[in-house]
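Deviation from plan, reported transparently: zinc ion complex.
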Amino acid sequence: MAELEKCIECGKVIKDESHAPYCKKCDEKLDKHFDTIEDNILIFRELLDSEIETLKKFESEDINDLFKRVHKKFKDDNKLDNQSLIILNKLKDAFKIDEKKLGLSPIPVVKETREDRLLKNNQCPDCEKEIQKDFSLCPYCGFKLKKDK
Ligand SMILES: [Zn+2]
Ligand SMILES: [Zn+2]
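Because the crystal trials were delayed, the predicted structure below was used instead.
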């Protein structure tokens, strides 16, 4: 008797002969999720750790293509700044992407610092208390929140 193939996402037995790891429903759901993640990257320039986990369910070819699309879009829009580079580096690290193999020029290493991360979460980088985005000084510890330009 042939072994039943089960969807690795929901565990349901896959009845068709596709030999895909996911059932049709989960496959569609994941594809949608993939599009949402791509939009988040391109529009909001954000990539959450949970989104990286979702992307890990895809083939490396899909991820490489995503990387190329995102890189091209940032470049075309003249948005290849630190915020974009942080995302590209996140993808690179999570998926061991080699930009040279993708025919891209080397991407400068820019990592999100602890300070960036806390500020993004509306937390003071020093005392970690909750603050508002428009504060220039932390009301709790006096930490300078806005860098002088
Ligand atoms: Zn499923
Ligand atoms: Zn503080």
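Residues 24-44 form the longest helix (21 residues). We consider this an acceptable substitute for the interim report.
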